[in-house]
Design goal:
Blueprint: E1 2-3, E2 13-16, E3 23-29, H1 37-48, E4 52-56, H2 74-83, H3 86-102, E5 106-115, H4 117-128, E6 136-139, E7 158-163, H5 171-182, E8 188-193, H6 210-227, H7 232-236
Parallel strand pairs: 3-4, 3-5, 5-6, 6-7, 7-8
Antiparallel strand pairs: 1-2, 2-4
Helix pairs in contact: 3-4
């Protein structure tokens, strides 16, 4: 992972290049715990698929803290959310998409992907960015229940993942989200994973659901392959 010194943002960011040196871009938005080893590993997974990945540090204006994942860190992470200026963070996210699009390594469009806090951020960014991202992937976007008024503005092809046993976003709310994001759109994929709770992709034992994590990542990579494809030329370098 490289510090994105050649990308002009007001917050820190990390840039990962695929082995080929170029490819479509993905802005990856963090969970509430910050840019953790888990987020970095998912960024690397995307780079390994052939994507140029930019990870903006959305807590950069708060000193860029990283909080321990799991039960002990959760209260501090929730407190950090209270400190975040959401609209300023959205603006930082929009700037990150624009900066990644302009990066010379990016060819073939740019999408957004986020987990939990980042899933809602990706959705909000997709609603207001101009031009729109070429693809949106949101994992259990925690802010989505309060952002559904933006759904008509989210015109990018999108993939949403939720668990049906999420204590933070109950299944009735998940179904409300599904109705809002699919209404009037023919390019929304909505996956609800049996037995999975909130943050099921996070490897912390408090959250992880191995079956849902594996299934969702396979669905994500296949979906990205259709909506934000890495060309054979970029893969080969």
């Amino acid at each position: 992972m490289l510090m994105a010194d050649d990308i002009a943002l007001e917050i820190p960011a990390d840039l990962l290049l695929p082995a080929s040196g170029s490819g479509p871009g993905i802005v990856l938005f963090q969970e509430i715990f910050g840019v953790t080893d888990y987020i970095r590993s998912r960024a690397q997974d995307l780079a390994d698929l052939g994507y140029v990945v930019l990870v903006p540090h959305l807590y950069g204006r708060l000193g860029d803290p990283v909080v321990e994942e799991g039960g002990e860190g959760l209260p501090r992470a929730m407190a950090l959310l209270e400190e975040v200026d959401w609209q300023l963070a959205v603006a930082d996210g929009v700037d990150a998409v624009a900066a990644l699009r302009a990066h010379p390594a990016v060819a073939g469009g740019a999408g957004v992907l986020g987990f939990c806090f980042g899933g809602g951020m990706a959705f909000n960014v997709a609603a207001v960015a101009d031009p729109k991202p070429d693809a949106l992937v949101s994992y259990y976007g925690s802010a989505l229940p309060g952002l559904l008024g933006l759904a008509p503005e989210v015109t990018s092809p999108s993939l949403h993942h939720f668990g049906d046993s999420d204590d933070y976003i109950p299944l009735d709310t998940v179904r409300d989200i599904e109705r809002a994001v699919t209404e009037g759109s023919d390019d929304v994929t909505f996956e609800v994973h049996p037995g999975a709770g909130h943050a099921f992709d996070n490897p912390s034992p408090m959250f992880h659901h191995a079956q849902a994590s594996a299934a969702a990542w396979q669905q994500t990579t296949q979906w990205l392959g259709r909506h934000l494809p890495v060309t054979a030329q970029a893969t080969a370098g």
